[in-house]
Design brief:
Elements (H helix, E strand, L loop, with lengths): L6 H22 L1 H20 L3 H31 L5 H38 L1
Helix pairs in contact: 2-3, 3-4
Amino acid sequence: MKPGKKGLARIIAATRYSWQGLVAAWNNEAAFRQEVILIILLMPLAFIIGKSASQIAIMVLSLGLVLIAELANSAIEAVVDRFGGEQHELSGRAKDIGSAMVLISLLFSCITWLTIVYYNYFKVAFT
C-alpha cells in the first residue's frame, strides 16, 4: 500500500483533487464548457420528456456519460501534449481515439434521447 493520507483525510483530499480537475477542465477546455451548458439546458427536458423514473434516469445518465468521455479525452490530450512535443503517430492516434470516445458517447446519448422521444410521443401515432 502506498503511503499517504488515510480514512476521511484521504476522501477529503481526493474530493479536493477532483474539484480541481473540474475547474481545470472548465477553465481550459472549450468543449467541456459547451457540453456542460448543453447539459444544463437539456437536464430539465429529461424531466418533461421522460414518462418514468427509469426513462429520466437513462436520459440524465447518457448526458453524464458525455461529460465523463470529455474529461477522459481532455486528460489524454493533456498527457500527450505534456510528453509529446514532437509529432508522433502514437500521439495522434491517442488523441484521435479520445476524440472518438467523445463522439460515440454523444451519438449514444442522441440515440437514447431520440428513442425515448419517439416511444413516448410518436409510437402511438404510427401504430
